[in-house]
């Protein structure tokens, strides 16, 4: 063992990308594996939806509320569309919309948050006031108003939700960055004369990443929920587009009727379950990432 | 047999009211050849059916907003209608369970001069809740409230036809611009309760001092309205509850749950998807009344491509109404035939040929219009009627076979009636219906109607509409109305999907007589008409 | 000046500015919304004549800028004005009277939820960090994630089914009024409070855990470990004080949410809170009421965040005693 030590560096350097990925993955705990496999399945469902789904997204193929059977695996919905097919297409729409929204909100909110924490002064105050004003207005009600003003296309929905979400990301990024910017290494970088970009991306961001990543996992899932709430209040995704949040809201009255009267699982439970499983999966992976970035190499 | 039956019924009524003993009734029944068990069960049932005093009725209504006001001119819906009109107030006339107009505050009414002049004689002994007697001046002031330049009343256009109205002793005299044989129906509207006149000549609509079977205790707009019994109510056989409470529960699932958990006794607008499950609940009765209301899609006939009657016909043949009724409304309703007059309304006809799903005919009409295929936008929201979006999506599927591509646009519920209805070329719409042919046609299909949502102006139709109003010969009037309905069916811009049923549910221990069809909640007068059986 | 005092004064001053921005944003959005109060009230029955009469009566026929200036002038005198509804009569509904009972209900529910939820989520979060990767951690994690991932109304209906319909332990309707006594109010608001608890505990607990775990790798934690400080003590004494800033921010978020974001729960349980009032007023374009609600929400938000900022300053010596 001791004799090999000097060579260790060399061996590591030669390790290919594939090799290191494999090594990292093999150290992943069960929960992370579960998460990754679920996410992979969802992504496959989303990408290959038209080939996987037995029927079309909006195709009416049977009677309303048919029970599950060989023809319709999960039964049919309120106007006789195949629930399984809509769930598959729902993966595509829901994940797509949520991913774009969250990405946009983190790009805008995260960058601004760190920037203002570093600069402080008037820029900080100015942006913080505007953000506070937006944050201070209830999301749902504001989203409702904005959707009514600008029209409720999917693009508008993504932009509006991203805008409203980015204010929250901003707040968190700024709060965590405030702790980091007073660190000596940041001051050292400033004294070194590093540019703002360097300080943000090389000094501050890596150190506030864990809470941000956790937040990303949560925010991503919150997008589904916001869309579900908007559908509950009467706006949301345009039909016949399948979207899990709207699908739950559409058949909300079935929730309070128990399995006793329903020989099969009531329709709203499928999309709700789809959301729940994905959320758990994403956050398992996020937790694993958090664990790795925290630099802890101790117990399992 | 019939005679015996009648006698027995009469005895039964007397028995449950305690005028003869139960033993006497049983003896009579046995003498008429009825078994003892049958006699007993007759008595128990009759006793349960007999109105009984007492109890607090709690009703969950799917409407109500914080902006609701005591001003009857702005009563927007069932919540204010049922609570602040049907429970608290009375109009000049009332529509009974059979759809006939009968006197309420007015004891009788009479027309003269080709139905141009109407005299309403007021009932004696009617008092407001503060004890003051209702006079003809109060009636005049109450109706004047909706007229005049500054009126913001929904009844304003209804009362446009009045030239003068004046109090004359215990009568109120109306002079109309033209004859209207249906005028007594007009003043039965829930926007026109009778209210006390103030010293300055205006009417006191704010205090809630009205004439109804219940007095207002508290009104919290958008939340709750509570009432207690008016001991001096002039109808002896109405108003059985000690107190009545209305809750505004807009979410249908919450409403259903409140009924199932016993926190309310009555709910309107049941969720159709779960109706079978609700019906299986042993403590709940589901009641279905086919009313005058109808779910329609209306096109602006002045806009392309809907200005061509063949396009309109192609569209009318492109929807499978039976399929929509079955899938979206789960059979709760009556299929429409592009005639807005409900089959139960007097003078209603069923115009031929019936418009049903027929892709061949649809294509044929498209060809006549010089088209191979047709694409148009259809703007819908569930604010128009619950199920408007799903129906439109089904229609889109049906229409594909007719070479018609419908682009369904879901509009926001919020502001639907301001921004979409009467603005976009093809929209979903809803009419709660009117008790007479004339009223419905005047409201929505006359050339000068304020709510002409099809922008349809047909000279022959309008000529007949005016002529029929003052026609006193029933047969001639019927012929005119039949022709009007036929013209509207063939040429108009409405696609009538169906006449909806009022599907409402209530606790088993509520008793009632025949339920009225003119509005929901027993003509909105449930509080004075119903009672607890136990 | 002491940094805490300076922050408080600065924030209060700027808070007023935020309120002003909020009022402008809300007013502008309302103006941009199609339709007006008259159209909203009259609905399908609106005609140009009646709409005009309505607008004359409530003064909506004047230009927007005039109305805004008039409104904000009254605000500075402490007058929130009257709701457009009932403005024509002699009994006007003042916005304060309209909002006061609803605000009480909303705060009642929020405080009731927070009293249980905040300590609960802190304890759960600290325990999860302490027993990281144990079964306890995994179970709490999965359960909280599932509640986070379920739409509020879904949770609400499920609770309603189990606790109000199948077992009639609670009311499914949470209608309360000013005559409801305190105990009854708590009882009626129990289901909405539990629903909200499930939603916010998950979020707060996860952030607490994340913030703590983030610190476990810090040199001083390793130092503590090397010194032989027990893990429990190390986390509570060394990690927790440094984690207060992000935790406080998340708690402030969630408390603000309890006041401003509960409209869906209010709808499901028919709880007369301020969220429903605002949604109603937005859809009827009742500007004075919407504005007042928005200002209340904004003030709540500003206050809670000020509190969170004070906590982050107080718990961070570098910020408390700047060089």
Oligomer: heterotrimer
Give the topology string of chain C: H per helix, E per strand. Answer: HHHHHHHHHHHHHHH
Tally of DSSP helical segments of chain C? 15
What does the overall shape of chain B look like?
globular
CATH topology of the domain at 105-274 in chain C: MetI-like fold
Q: Count of helical segments of chain B?
A: 18
Strand content of chain B: 15-25%
How much helical structure, as a percent, in the residues of chain B? 25-40%
Poorly predicted regions of chain C are none
Q: Tell me, what is the CATH class of the domain at 105-274 in chain C?
A: Mainly Alpha
Low-pLDDT stretches of chain B: none
Biggest interface reads: A-C, 63 and 66 residues
Short structural description:
The complex is a heterotrimer of chains A (300), B (534) and C (323). Chain A is mainly alpha-helical and 300 residues long.
Output the keywords.
heterotrimer, A: MetI-like fold, 70% helix, globular, disordered N terminus, C: 323 residues, mainly alpha, 76% helix
Descriptive overview:
The complex is a heterotrimer of chains A (300), B (534) and C (323). Chain A is mainly α and 300 residues long. Chain A contains 12 helices and no strands. Chain A has one domain: MetI-like (MetI-like fold). Chain A is 70% helix and 0% strand. In chain A, 52% of the residues are buried. In chain B, the strands form 5 sheets. In chain B, strands 1, 8, 9, 10, 11, 12, 13, 16 and 17 form a 9-stranded mixed beta sheet that branches. A 4-stranded antiparallel beta sheet of chain B has the order 4-5-7-6, covered by helices on one side. A two-stranded antiparallel ribbon of chain B has the order 2-3. Chain C has a domain of 170 residues: MetI-like (MetI-like fold). Chain C contains 15 helices and no strands. In chain C, helix 5 runs parallel beside helix 14. The longest helix of chain C has 36 residues. The mean pLDDT of chain C is 84. Chains in contact: A-B, A-C, B-C.
């Amino acid at each position: 063992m001791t004799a090999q030590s000097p060579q260790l560096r060399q061996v590591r350097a030669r390790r290919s990308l594939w090799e290191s990925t494999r090594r990292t993955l093999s150290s992943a705990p069960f929960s992370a594996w579960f998460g990754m496999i679920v996410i992979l399945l969802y992504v496959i469902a989303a990408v290959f939806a038209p080939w996987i789904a037995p029927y079309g997204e909006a195709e009416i193929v049977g009677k309303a509320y048919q029970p599950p059977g060989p023809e319709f695996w999960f039964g049919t919905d309120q106007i006789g569309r195949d629930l399984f097919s809509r769930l598959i297409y729902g993966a595509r729409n829901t994940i797509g919309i949520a991913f774009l929204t969250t990405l946009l909100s983190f790009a805008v909110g995260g960058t601004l948050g760190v920037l203002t924490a570093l600069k402080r002064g008037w820029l900080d105050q100015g942006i913080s006031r505007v953000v506070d004003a937006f944050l201070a207005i209830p999301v749902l009600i504001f989203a409702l108003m904005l959707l009514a003003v600008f029209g409720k296309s999917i693009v508008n929905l993504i932009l509006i939700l991203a805008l409203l979400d980015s204010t929250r990301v901003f707040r968190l990024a700024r709060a965590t960055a405030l702790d980091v910017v007073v660190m000596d290494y940041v001051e050292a970088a400033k004294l070194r004369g590093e540019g703002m970009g360097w300080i943000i991306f090389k000094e501050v961001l890596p150190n506030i990443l864990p809470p941000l990543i956790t937040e990303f996992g949560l925010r991503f899932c919150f997008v589904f929920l916001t869309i579900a709430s908007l559908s509950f209040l009467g706006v949301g995704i345009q039909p016949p587009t399948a979207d899990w949040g709207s699908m739950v809201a559409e058949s909300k009255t079935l929730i309070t009727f128990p399995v006793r009267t329903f020989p099969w699982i009531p329709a709203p439970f499928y999309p709700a379950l789809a959301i729940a499983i994905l959320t758990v999966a994403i956050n398992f992976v996020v937790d694993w990432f958090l664990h790795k970035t925290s630099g802890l190499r101790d117990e399992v | 047999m019939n005679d015996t039956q009648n006698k027995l019924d009469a005895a039964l009524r007397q028995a449950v009211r305690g005028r003869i003993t139960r033993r006497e009734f049983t003896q009579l029944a046995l003498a008429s050849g009825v078994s003892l068990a049958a006699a007993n069960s007759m008595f128990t049932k009759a006793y349960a059916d007999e109105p009984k005093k007492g109890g607090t009725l709690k009703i969950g209504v799917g409407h109500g907003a914080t902006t609701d006001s005591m001003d009857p001119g702005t009563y927007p819906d069932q919540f204010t209608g049922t609570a602040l009109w049907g429970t608290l107030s009375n109009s000049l006339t009332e529509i009974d369970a059979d759809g006939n107009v009968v006197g309420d505050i007015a004891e009788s009414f009479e027309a003269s001069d080709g139905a141009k002049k109407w005299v309403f004689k007021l009932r004696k002994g009617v008092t407001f809740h503060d004890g003051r007697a209702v006079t003809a001046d109060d009636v005049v002031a109450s109706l004047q409230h909706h007229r005049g330049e500054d009126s913001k009343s929904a009844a304003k256009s209804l009362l446009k036809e009045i030239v003068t109205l004046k109090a004359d002793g215990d009568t109120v005299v109306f002079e109309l611009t033209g004859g209207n044989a249906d005028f007594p129906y007009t003043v039965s509207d829930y926007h026109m309760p009778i209210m006390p006149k103030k010293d300055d000549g205006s009417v006191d609509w704010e205090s809630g001092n009205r004439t109804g079977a219940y007095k207002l205790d508290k009104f919290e707009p958008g939340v709750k309205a509570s009432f207690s019994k008016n001991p001096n109510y002039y109808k002896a056989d109405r108003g059985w509850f000690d107190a009545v409470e209305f809750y505004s529960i807009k979410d249908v699932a919450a409403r259903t749950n409140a009924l199932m958990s016993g926190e309310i006794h009555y709910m309107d607008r049941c969720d159709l998807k779960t109706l079978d499950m609700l019906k299986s609940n042993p403590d709940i009765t589901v009641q279905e009344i086919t009313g005058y209301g109808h779910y329609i899609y209306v096109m602006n006939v002045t806009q392309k491509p809907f200005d061509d009657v063949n396009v309109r016909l192609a569209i009318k043949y492109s929807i499978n109404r039976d399929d929509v009724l079955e899938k979206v409304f789960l059979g709760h309703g009556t299929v429409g035939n592009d005639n807005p007059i409900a089959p139960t309304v007097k003078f209603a006809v069923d115009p031929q040929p019936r418009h049903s799903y027929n892709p061949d005919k649809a294509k044929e009409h498209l060809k006549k219009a010089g088209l191979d295929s047709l694409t148009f936008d259809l703007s819908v929201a569930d604010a128009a009627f619950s199920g408007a979006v799903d129906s439109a999506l089904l229609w889109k599927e049906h229409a594909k076979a007719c070479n018609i591509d419908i682009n369904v646009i879901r509009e926001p519920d919020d502001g639907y009636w301001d921004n979409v209805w009467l603005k976009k070329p093809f929209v979903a719409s809803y009419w709660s219906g009117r008790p007479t042919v004339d009223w419905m046609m005047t409201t929505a299909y006359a050339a000068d109607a304020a709510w002409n949502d099809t922008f349809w102006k047909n000279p022959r139709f309008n000529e007949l509409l005016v002529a029929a109003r003052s026609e006193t010969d029933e047969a001639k009037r019927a012929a005119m109305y039949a022709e009007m309905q036929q013209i509207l069916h063939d040429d108009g811009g409405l696609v009538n999907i169906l006449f909806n049923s009022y599907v409402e549910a209530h606790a088993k221990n509520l008793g009632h007589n025949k339920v009225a069809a003119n509005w929901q909640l027993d003509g909105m007068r449930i509080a004075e008409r119903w009672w607890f059986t136990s | 000046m002491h940094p805490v005092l300076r922050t408080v004064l600065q924030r209060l001053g700027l808070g007023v500015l935020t309120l002003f921005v909020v009022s402008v944003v809300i007013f502008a959005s309302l103006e941009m919304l199609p339709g007006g109060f008259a159209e909203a009230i009259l609905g399908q029955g609106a005609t140009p004549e009646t709409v005009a009469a309505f607008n004359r009566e409530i003064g909506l026929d004047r230009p927007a800028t005039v109305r805004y200036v008039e409104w904000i002038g009254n605000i500075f005198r402490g007058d929130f004005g009257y709701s457009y509804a009932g403005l024509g009569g002699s009994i006007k509904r003042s916005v304060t009277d309209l909002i006061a009972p609803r605000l009480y209900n909303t705060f009642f529910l929020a405080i009731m939820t927070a009293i249980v939820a905040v300590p609960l989520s802190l304890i759960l979060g600290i325990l999860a960090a302490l027993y990281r990767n144990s079964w306890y951690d995994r179970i709490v994690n999965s359960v909280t994630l599932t509640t986070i991932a379920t739409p509020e109304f879904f949770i609400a209906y499920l609770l309603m089914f189990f606790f109000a319909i199948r077992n009639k332990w609670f009311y499914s309707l949470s209608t309360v009024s000013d005559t409801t006594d305190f105990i009854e109010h708590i009882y009626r608001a129990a289901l909405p409070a539990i629903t909200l608890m499930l939603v916010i505990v998950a979020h707060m607990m996860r952030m607490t855990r994340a913030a703590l775990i983030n610190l476990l790798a810090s040199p001083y934690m390793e130092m503590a470990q090397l010194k032989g400080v027990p893990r429990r003590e190390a986390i509570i004494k060394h990690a927790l004080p440094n984690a207060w800033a992000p935790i406080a921010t998340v708690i402030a978020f969630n408390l603000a949410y309890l006041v401003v974001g509960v409209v869906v729960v209010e709808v499901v349980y028919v709880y007369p809170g301020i969220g429903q009032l605002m949604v109603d007023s937005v859809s009827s374009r009742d500007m004075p009421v919407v504005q007042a609600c928005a200002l209340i929400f904004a003030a709540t938000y500003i206050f809670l965040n000020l509190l969170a900022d004070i906590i982050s300053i107080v718990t961070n010596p570098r910020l408390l005693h700047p060089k």
